[in-house]
């Protein structure tokens, strides 16, 4: 149910507070672009620095504004199982279509702990769940064997796979019938070729129609067009993750395009001047800006 292109939504701030009117505008803009699924309060949404009340209000705001025009898949994960259960229950009550559950970070549980964590959430809510494996941020890979066990639990329907390993993607496809979603924009086409069914995308904050077109071209068997779009997107995808930690580049890019003010919440902060120039150059090369200041 979450195949295709999901946008990992940015959380806009103004004067230190969540800018809910701009968040609503962003929801409307993405739906007008044809985006089928919106994923707020994830990594790109700066969830680690949101208060509990803000986290819940962002979920409720996106669900209310989407109003059934797009599915909503909010991030509700935590390194505290009890907190993840609480947030996921809130998402279900708010009317979300599913929940995205990042692996517990910092405390680095063993595989048995990872299984027990996700299993307890699955047993606590009646909501489709998408596991999010991103070992570069969590410090722990959710191994295919563990995901195979979790796949037997009914609520778990998909995996956002961001380990960067195509071998792991292949093993997941061998072991489970779960929907596999790319967690790295630049690996979307290679993962589709293996059998993945979509992406939870950062770059789609900027160019959702191009990512939608890439997936559509692949699904229609137009491999040449899919490859052309992949190669067009690749430099921008790379720069959004390489110039600084996500979501710094994409949030600054949105500000350069007039779709935000580039405000962050500490410990994230605006990139240095050279990094800002690199972001502007990347946008210009893509054709989103007309020149480099």
UniProtKB/TrEMBL annotation:
Protein name per its UniProtKB record: 4-hydroxy-tetrahydrodipicolinate synthase
Annotated active site residues, numbered on this chain, are 132 (proton donor/acceptor), 160 (schiff-base intermediate with substrate)
> What are the GO BP annotations of this UniProt entry?
diaminopimelate biosynthetic process; lysine biosynthetic process via diaminopimelate
The record ties this protein, via InterPro entries, to: Aldolase_TIM, DapA, DapA-like, Schiff_base-form_aldolases_AS
User: Which key words are in the record?
Assistant: Amino-acid biosynthesis, Cytoplasm, Diaminopimelate biosynthesis, Lyase, Lysine biosynthesis, Schiff base
Q: According to the entry, what is the taxonomic lineage of the organism? A: Bacteria, Pseudomonadati, Planctomycetota, Planctomycetia, Isosphaerales
Source organism superkingdom? Bacteria
Complex and partners: Homotetramer; dimer of dimers.
Where does the record place it? Answer: Cytoplasm
Functional pathway: Amino-acid biosynthesis; L-lysine biosynthesis via DAP pathway; (S)-tetrahydrodipicolinate from L-aspartate: step 3/4
- Indicate the family of this protein: Belongs to the DapA family.
Name the predominant localization: cytoplasm
One GO cellular component term of this record is:
cytosol
Q: What does this protein do?
A: Catalyzes the condensation of (S)-aspartate-beta-semialdehyde [(S)-ASA] and pyruvate to 4-hydroxy-tetrahydrodipicolinate (HTPA).
Q: Where does pyruvate bind?
A: 44, 200
Query: What EC number(s) is this enzyme filed under?
Result: 4.3.3.7
| Any one GO molecular function term | 4-hydroxy-tetrahydrodipicolinate synthase activity
- Which Pfam family name is an example for this entry? DHDPS
- UniProt site (Part of a proton relay during catalysis): 43, 106
Q: Which SUPFAM superfamilies match?
A: Aldolase (SSF51569)
Q: Which catalysed reactions does the entry list for this protein?
A: L-aspartate 4-semialdehyde + pyruvate = (2S,4S)-4-hydroxy-2,3,4,5-tetrahydrodipicolinate + H2O + H(+)
């Amino acid at each position: 149910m979450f195949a295709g292109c999901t946008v990992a939504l940015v959380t806009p701030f103004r004067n230190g507070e969540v800018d809910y009117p701009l968040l609503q505008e962003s929801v409307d803009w993405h739906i007008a672009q044809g985006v089928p699924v919106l994923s707020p309060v994830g990594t790109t949404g700066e969830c680690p620095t949101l208060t509990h009340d803000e986290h819940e209000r962002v979920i409720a705001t996106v669900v209310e504004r989407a109003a059934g025009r797009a599915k909503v898949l909010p991030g509700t994960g935590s390194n505290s199982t009890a907190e993840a259960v609480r947030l996921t229950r809130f998402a279900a009550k708010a009317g979300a279509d599913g929940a995205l559950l990042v692996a517990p970070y910092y405390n680095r549980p063993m595989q048995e702990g990872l299984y027990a964590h996700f299993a307890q959430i699955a047993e606590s809510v009646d909501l489709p769940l998408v596991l999010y494996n991103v070992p570069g941020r969590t410090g722990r890979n959710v191994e295919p064997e563990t995901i195979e066990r979790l796949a037997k639990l009914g609520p778990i329907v998909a995996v956002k796979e961001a380990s960067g390993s195509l071998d792991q993607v292949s093993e997941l496809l061998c072991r489970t019938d779960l929907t596999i979603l790319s967690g790295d924009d630049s690996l979307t086409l290679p993962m589709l070729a293996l059998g993945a069914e979509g992406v939870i995308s950062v770059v789609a904050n900027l160019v959702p129609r191009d990512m939608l077109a890439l997936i559509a071209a692949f699904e229609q068997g137009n491999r040449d067009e899919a490859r052309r779009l992949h190669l067009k997107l690749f430099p921008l995808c790379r720069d959004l993750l390489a110039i600084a930690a996500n979501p710094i580049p994409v949030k600054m890019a949105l500000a350069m395009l007039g779709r935000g003010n580039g405000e962050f919440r500490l410990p994230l902060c605006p990139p240095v001047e050279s990094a800002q120039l690199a972001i502007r150059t990347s946008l210009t090369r893509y054709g989103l800006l007309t020149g480099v200041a």
